[in-house]
Each structure stands twice: as structure tokens, then as C-alpha cells.
Amino acid sequence: MIWYTVLVLAVGAERVAELAVARRNARWSLAHGAVERGRGHYPSMVVLHTGLLLGCLAEVALADRPFTPVLGWTMLAVVIAAQALRWWCVRTLGPRWNTRVLVVPGLPLVTGGPYRLLRHPNYVAVVAEGVALPLVHGAWLTALVFTVLNAGLLAVRIRCENGALRMAEAGALP
After folding, report:
1. Euclidean distance between CA atoms 72 and 78, whole angstroms
2. Rounded mean pLDDT of 35-42?
3. To 5 degrees, how large is the angle CA 93–CA 96–CA 99?
């Protein structure tokens, strides 16, 4: 359980690093006239992602979930791949990447990196990690609850992002 706690804490530290990058990028975006959309769902996203990390640790400890090597090592590989995909997205978007929906009017849609394959590759990473991180140590209930709640949140989030991008492409953002 100690190594799993270290893994979950490392993912938590990665989230803190993401927030630092997001704050820096928000300053850049706002300085370039960005418009924010979707403020209403952002607190729910923070709570859900924090709950994922806490749920992983709580379920493993309280329900005495075992480590099953075949599942655990496979899911650890998925967690690592999800982190790699997430940071590829961050690198590709550069100062335009954010945890918030900030759109700078007049900038073209990014079509390089993972965005040449998918419109929202970062959410592929989120979904993969939300399933895999708990399952590294058998926390199937956390994986299930996060996945269901995250599906609802992503439906709202992706609709919000797509709408903001359409408005920016049409020149309709203030």
C-alpha cells in the first residue's frame, strides 16, 4: 500500500504542477484578450478530481483491496501513458493550454500533435487515468464512481469548449 500511496501522491503533485502551468497560461491568455467560458462547472471538476485521488487511497485502505499483479501492472502502464498524453497536449497547446476554458479570439485552432488525431485528446488521458489509477490497486468502486460522474462532467465540459471554439472561429467572441 505504501508504494500505491506514493503513486497517488505523485499524481496529486502532477495536478499541482498542472495548476501552476494553468495559472501562468491564464495570465498569458487574458493578456491576449481571452474570454472564459464554463466557470460554473469548474468547481465540480476540481472536487471530482480531488475525490478521485482521495477515493483511491480510502477504498484501498478501508476495503482492504488487494494488489493483483496482472491488473495492477497493466493499469500502471495506462496511468503512465495517460500522463504522457496529457503532457503532450500541454506541450502542443503551449500557453493556450489551461484547466479552464479560455479562448483567445483570432487564434487558429490547434491541429498539431495529438490534436491532429482527436479534437479533445486531453480528455482521453483523463478518462484513461480515471479508470486506471484506482485499478492499479483494485479500487474498482472508485473507478466506477469516477467514470460515471466524469462522463456527465465531460459532456458539459466538451459542449462548453466546442461552443467557445465555434464562437472564436466565427469571430463572435467579444
Report:
1. 10
2. 92
3. 100
Q: What is the pTM of this model?
A: 0.92
* Helical spans, DSSP H, in the chain: 2-31, 42-62, 69-93, 121-135, 140-169
Spatial distance between the Cα atoms of 98 and 56, rounded to a whole number of angstroms: 25
Contact 68, 90 (CB under 8 A): no
Alpha carbon 132 to its chain's center = 13
Length of the chain: 174
Residue 130: which of 19, 16, 13, 8 has the closest Cα? 8
Closest residue by Cα to residue 167 from 24, 38, 43? 38
138 phi and psi, to 5 degrees? 75, 15
Q: Is 8 in contact with 83 (CB distance < 8 Å)?
A: no
What is the rounded CA–CA span in Å between residue 3 and residue 161? 37
CA distance 155 to 151: 6
160 contacts 38 by C-beta, under 8 angstroms: yes
Nearest-angstrom CA–CA distance, 76 and 61: 18
**Contacts for 17 with CB less than 8 Å, ≥ 6 apart:** none
Residues above pLDDT 70, as percent of the chain: 97
CA distance 145 to 61: 17
